[in-house]
């Protein structure tokens, strides 16, 4: 009970956004909900938040909508051996400790999970775009090699994956491929393996899958990401979600709010029934990050032009195992000059500098 577990306490009326901030900022990686007498009434994990977003809840909704009301707990009398057994059996790294009337008194931790996990799953980065909307910055530099802070976007991406335990990279190139190859080489300077596949002609956001080696392990889905995405999404949680739900492909999605700039009038038979002033509509949009299983990869012929949405639509009709993974972490598609300028200011306040 060494860590300050009181930093992760919430009341049921707190917002999902407040729970999210706790989970992202505190070492415990979960939040506990208590009543006015400090009795434990619920626990919130990252997965609870993502499921809530998929069920059309917003970050301003209260946490009682998403919390687990029957959390696994133990008492102070529980032996260390038994605590480890409980956490191992349920696949959790921390366990709330309560007294006889369910008042929260602390948290125990499964410290034996401290060793870093290494993933053999390939990471495929799409880095062949022209970046025309970022001209003149891209006149003599491919967009993924533009510097955000002190490093190119592509290097920040690769370092984020390395930090998460990934070490096998493929990079798809087209525009100024030599700039990328000269900078990264075979990846040995970063302690990883980098292999390049080159698009002779632009193949769309999904066509480069057909250029990957045919001997990729069939049991290891790949993570695929556009080379102009700046994000601190948890790639291990994304991969685990895909595997646990038997996905053919998983698309990361992020919320996008659009405010209609006028009052919206609903009428019937010539009479006004309701009026809403400047309503906000909420959508999920494609975040340009995917997990793709062998079934989808092998369906793309070599040098076949296709975009990822079209490719995934084809597989939706076959097996209906195309999943969506809502991301609530930082995400920015650096497609325009204002995005590029925003990234320059964001990079200093986020954990991207390694």
TrEMBL record:
It comes from Marinomonas communis. Transmembrane segments: none annotated. Keywords: CBS domain. This is CBS domain protein. It comes from the Bacteria. PROSITE patterns: CBS. It holds the Pfam family CBS. The keyword Lipid metabolism does not apply. Residues 1-59, 67-123 form the CBS domain. The keyword Transmembrane helix does not apply.
């Amino acid at each position: 009970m060494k860590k300050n577990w009181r930093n992760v306490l919430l009341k049921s009326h707190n917002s999902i956004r407040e729970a999210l901030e706790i989970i992202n900022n505190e070492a415990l990686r979960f939040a506990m909900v208590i009543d006015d007498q400090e009795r434990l009434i619920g626990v919130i994990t990252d997965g609870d938040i993502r499921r809530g977003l998929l069920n059309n809840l917003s970050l301003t909704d209260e946490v009682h909508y998403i919390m687990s009301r029957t959390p696994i707990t133990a008492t102070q009398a529980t032996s260390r051996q038994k605590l480890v057994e409980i956490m191992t059996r349920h696949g959790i790294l921390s366990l709330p400790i309560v007294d006889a009337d369910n008042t929260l008194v602390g948290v125990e931790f499964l410290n034996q999970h401290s060793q870093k996990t290494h993933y053999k799953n390939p990471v495929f980065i799409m880095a062949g775009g022209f970046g025309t909307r970022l001209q003149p910055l891209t006149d003599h530099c491919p967009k993924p090699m533009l510097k955000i802070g002190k490093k190119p976007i592509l290097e920040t991406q690769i370092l984020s994956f390395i930090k998460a335990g990934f070490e096998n990279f493929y990079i798809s190139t087209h525009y100024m491929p030599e700039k990328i190859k000269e900078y990264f080489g075979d990846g040995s300077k970063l302690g990883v393996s980098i292999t390049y596949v080159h698009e002779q002609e632009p193949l769309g956001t999904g066509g480069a899958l057909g250029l990957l080696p045919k001997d990729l392990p069939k049991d290891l889905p790949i993570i695929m990401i556009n080379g102009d995405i700046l994000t601190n999404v948890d790639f291990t949680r994304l991969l685990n979600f895909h595997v646990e739900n038997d996905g053919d492909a998983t698309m990361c999605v992020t919320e996008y709010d659009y405010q209609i700039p006028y009052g919206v009038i609903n009428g019937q038979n010539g009479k006004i029934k309701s009026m809403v002033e400047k309503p906000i509509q909420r959508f999920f949009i494609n975040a340009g990050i995917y997990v793709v299983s062998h079934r989808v990869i092998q369906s793309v012929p070599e040098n076949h032009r296709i975009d990822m949405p079209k490719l995934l639509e084809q597989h939706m009709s076959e097996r209906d195992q195309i999943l969506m993974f809502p991301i609530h972490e930082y995400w920015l598609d650096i497609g325009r000059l204002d995005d590029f300028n925003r990234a320059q200011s964001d990079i200093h306040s986020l954990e991207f500098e390694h």
